[in-house]
DNA sequence: GGCTATTAGTTAGCCGGCTAACATGTATCC
DNA sequence: GGATACATGTTAGCCGGCTAACTAATAGCC
């Protein structure tokens, strides 16, 4: 799911279109298209970066969520927190288990539950790679001044928490 | 490629992490995570909206780029403008041709080239659906004031055109 | 205590990207 | 003008999401 429109319309072009097409709000459309484009681009960038650690953003997020939650969660809880389906989480966990970063532990009181547990190796991996990720993030946002970063975070939050 | 982290860390949590992990810039990380999350969420929303027109964002973008360019482009040009590979464009065009929205026209001067041409049906489709898309965009950005929209568009542009 | 509904996890198969390898046609250069 | 390089588009096969359908286990209700 990538949206990497290279040739985004500029304000002048959109204002021209606004005469032809109804409902066109130039500022909304500009912001929207740039948001989609940058979101995809940054996600692509994250995946290219994580490939150097033989990792994908999906599995990485699972590790980070697990780490942040004390290292033990049910697959359904992980799926909910991460925003993927349980089916997808099954696949993510299987690959993390194959790599020895996570283990599955059956609940002896409820046979349906099988918690995902971060292994020592998994914990080391997160602690080793997290600083690199933060550096990657800083590099991605380097063109913005500290003030712009705060403004961006603040405005985006209004869309998340209206 | 979705990044829909439901449970984004807040400022307080990141500040706590900043003590533990080096290289962590709280504002950069907040903005970055929200950007990824919203980009994925909006792209998902666009796909859900377009599904009502039996359309996907990939094919829709191809139609719009074609429309904006006068209705005739080479697949390689389309791929470049849209930010997908030529291989992906082959698939997108095949589906649009199947639906009668686009036709392929062999170049009689260069046998390698086979331009994609918007049909009358394709043109009508774009003119019919574009206003709905603009309304969708307005609805997505409704939580933002006009001032916030301008600020968002301006800051994002610094990341696209540093 | 035994149907029934619900919950947890998995499996199967789809979809839209990707890369790599492949025709096929054109350009270049000796 | 023929070998070689390059450009265009397609194919084959991978990957990470998804939905829908399934199994297994628990909970609830009569």
What does this structure look like?
The structure is a homodimer of 162-residue chains. Chain A has 162 residues and is mainly α. The first copy, chain A, is built from 7 helices and 3 strands. Chain A has helices at 11-20, 26-51, 57-68, 75-82, 86-98, 120-140, 146-160, and strands at residues 72-73, 102-106, 114-118. In chain A, strands 1-3-2 form a 3-stranded antiparallel sheet. In chain A, a hairpin with a 7-residue loop joins β2 (102-106) and β3 (114-118). The radius of gyration of chain A is 20 Å and the shape is elongated. The two termini of chain A are 25 Å apart. In chain A, 38% of the residues are buried. The mean pLDDT of chain A is 95. Chains A and B meet through α2, α3, α4, α6 and α7 of A and α2, α3, α4, α6 and α7 of B. The structure holds a DNA duplex (30 and 30 nucleotides).
Into which percentage range does the β-strand content of chain A fall? 5-15%
> Could you spell the SSE succession of chain A in H and E letters?
HHHEHHEEHH
Structural class of chain A: mainly alpha
Sheet bearing the most strands of chain A, described? Answer: 3 strands, antiparallel
Low-pLDDT residue spans of chain A: none
Helical content of chain A stands at 55-70%
Radius of gyration of chain A over all CA atoms, rounded: 20 Å
Task: Determine the N-to-C terminus distance of chain A.
Answer: 25 Å
What form of chain A results from the Cα inertia axes? elongated
Number of alpha- plus pi-helical segments of chain A: 7
The pLDDT mean of chain A sits at 95
Major sheet strand order of chain A: 1-3-2
- Give the oligomer, counting copies of the same chain as homo and different chains as hetero: homodimer
> Using DSSP, what is the number of strands of chain A?
3
């Amino acid at each position: 799911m990538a949206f990497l429109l290279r040739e985004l319309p500029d304000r002048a072009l959109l204002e021209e279109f606004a005469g032809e097409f109804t409902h066109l709000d130039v500022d909304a459309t500009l912001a929207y298209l740039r948001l989609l484009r940058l979101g995809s681009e940054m996600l692509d960038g994250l995946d290219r970066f994580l490939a150097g650690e033989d990792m994908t953003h999906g599995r990485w997020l699972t590790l980070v969520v697990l780490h942040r939650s004390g290292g033990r969660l049910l697959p359904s809880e992980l799926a909910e927190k991460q925003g993927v389906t349980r089916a997808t989480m099954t696949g993510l966990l299987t690959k993390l288990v194959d790599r020895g970063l996570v283990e599955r532990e059956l609940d002896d009181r409820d046979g349906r539950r099988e918690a995902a547990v971060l292994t020592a190796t998994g914990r080391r991996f997160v602690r080793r790679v997290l600083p690199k990720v933060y550096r990657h993030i800083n590099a991605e946002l380097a063109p913005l001044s500290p003030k712009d970063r705060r403004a961006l975070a603040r405005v985006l939050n209004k869309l998340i928490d209206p």
